[in-house]
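User: Assemble these into one structure.

Assistant: Restating your components, then the assembled model:
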Amino acid sequence: MTADVSWIRPEPWGIHVVPADCWIDPSREVPHALVTHGHADHARGGHGRTTATPETLAIMELRYQTREGAQPVQYGETVRLAGRVDATFIPAGHVLGSAQILLEHAGERVIVTGDYKRRPDPTCPPFEVTPCDVFVTEATFGLPVFCHPPIEQEMAKLLKRLSDHPDRCVLVGAYALGKAQRVIAELRRAGHHEPIYLHGALERMCRLYEELGVNLGELRLVTDASKEELRGHIVLCPPGALNDRWSRRLPDPITAMASGWMRVRQRARQRNVELPLVISDHADWGELTRTIEEVNPAESWITHGREEALLRWCQLHQRRARALALIGYEDEDD
Amino acid sequence: MEAFSALLDALIYTRSRNEKLQLIADYLRAMPDPDRGWALAALTECLDFPAVKSSTIRNLLHERVDPVLWHLSRDFVGDTAETASLLWPAPDQPPSPPPSVSEAVELLSAMTRISVMSELPRLLDRLDAEGRFALLKLATGAMRIGVSARLAKTAFAQAFGVNVEEVEEYWHALAPPYQPLFAWASEGADPPDTGAMPLFRPFMLAHPLEDLELDLADYVAEWKWDGIRVQLVCAGGATRLYSRSGDDITGTFPEVAEALSIPAVLDGELLVRGSHQGGEEGGAASFNALQQRLGRKTVSAKMLAEYPAFVRLYDVLILEGEDQRERPWAERRSVLETLMPRLPRERFDLSAVVEATHFAELAQIRASARDEAIEGLMLKRRDSPYVAGRRVGLWYKWKRDPLLVDCVLMYAQRGNGRRSSFYSDYTFGCWDGDPDEGADLLPVGKAYSGFTDEELKRLDRYVRNHTVNRFGPVRETDRSLVFEVAFDSVHPSKRHKSGLAMRFPRIHRIRWDKPAHEADRIEALQALVKD
């Protein structure tokens, strides 16, 4: 079976679904966008109409202060688009509301994954393997050196460091949408029920997660706390605030960062991280290759990330694949 | 190996020097012999396994991982040992438990260039990713974990409450895993015998003289020559030349080592012949000329002829079996003077005593010293013994006043450790013409010291409010702040666009009041070049 699906066109600013004249995760304003998840590099504002899961739309509303043109679609629900294209949103396991989008037209099936992972995450439903002809996969961690350890191991590392230094605090840099809430939920799962302190930039997203049914336990703001109160506690901030002036108010913080990039020592050192936590919301190399095997598409299209290595793996395993050059996707802060 | 790999990782992620010392000391106290000795050898980069090279690791991986995937991974990670540790296809069940550090060292030492291809994989199969990283770092010898040999020895001294200078003294007499050293430090055994070997002895160092007047009846003055401090050791039929850090630089200056055949330990300044820095047997060139010879493993006949080296002697520590270090300076000085006629004049001269009757006269002599391209004066207590390290009140360095130039702040970068959130590293420049007629700034140097914590806070705020561009961690500022920069000397340099390089630049004053266009031009700096 070949896969020359001419009705889907990758363009530098997004994937164009030609018969429906709509775009998936476009990086510029379009009349109709299908959005896989709420990260800013995928979910931009200003589209005429936005089709996405209710959770993703809520996240976008929080960001852009408008629901104009929002068209919610539940997981598993199929919507008919123009030009006889059917779209189904399937859990991707990346962050709350994240979806793979299955597009069906003229008997051909295309899946665009957006970002995804295969490991369990208490804040969102797991990735579902769905057969298709063309599988458009991300490749953020598309190098064989990336093997994310079990998250329990990383949580144990974090909690051990915290209990070893009762006079200090551990400051964890975590991306505001998804990573921060997952780290909190995993801490709770590991039995840590102390209040967790937040940088102001994380507050609204955590509240939204709670409104959408993800229980995060007791959260407090750093601005409301004294230096004394913070000793022996975990503080979360966006990665950009880790080495910033903001952290001077903390009691001798141990700098940690939750990211898949922490796997590489020099990356962690460059960011002045003392406690690297290898926690990622993206598939690692093993997950990427296993997913391609399980989905078993006629062709894989590889986007944003280290396309080259995954492309090479496909060649070595006699799988048809091509790399797409999409622009505007940022991966450094994962 | 687990404890050792945990130590390496902890050291990699620790910024504070004190914490690093603590981590190493804890490890050395907790681990048994000979594991801790081998680990200490690894940290001081004193291990060598000729069969294991970086290329060996690459070849092993090429047999197991697709070369394209290896190359892409190595390129991203930037470290061969780390890439290999992450890519190694580990067996589901390790064939046997992880090796101890000493078992690993034993196995690595026994490997040949041929057997390594089958034996190293067996060793790697027994370890997890962190263990593989530690093993490969240990095997290839290049640790690059931000720990110097000196720091590791200081940690050893701290672990067992001994003096680090004594550790230095015995260090060169021993080979890994240093069991006599551990026996001495941790169990009070006799120290190792150091008599018959050409060993490095720790240097005596000086404190800066700050606003203090010394009585010249108690102190003697010498020039502080602008070369590198060296120690020459002749013992057991061999002669070695050591730098201030205790590195063996005999190979870089063979003509100097060959010139000493009397059993002795001598302290002096290594210089290159030239027209400045006058001495009894002729002058010496500036530091810039000496730099041509530094850092070379071998030296060509042309180098030897163009930049002949010699030592200007300051002191004698040991002479023909007699340890002089307990004797007062004045006695050691006369021993040295008596020795001089027995040394080849071509390679040795004596650092002259600067005669002055009172301190004010000395100050005057020092003020006029600039022309002779020397660093300033040394003041040594006449009755002081030769003691390792910096002891208050015995030796002082009285550097000449620094040169000053007004520069404009151009770029700032965040500092490390304590200063990690502050923009504390500054690149500054001078005008390449008339700033009122469109001249540009050329960077002339970089400094990260000379200001107080309060000033740093203000500078940090200034940088954040005056940023015009960002390049990764670097911020470009709007070129409106003037620094009065102090430095010891300035030399031509091909490495900088301005063609100049300063020695020891530091911020002398922050000129919040001075408009940037009134800062100095490049010509002002060029006029201060002395060679």
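The domain at 151-277 of chain A is CATH 3.40.50.12650 (Rossmann fold).
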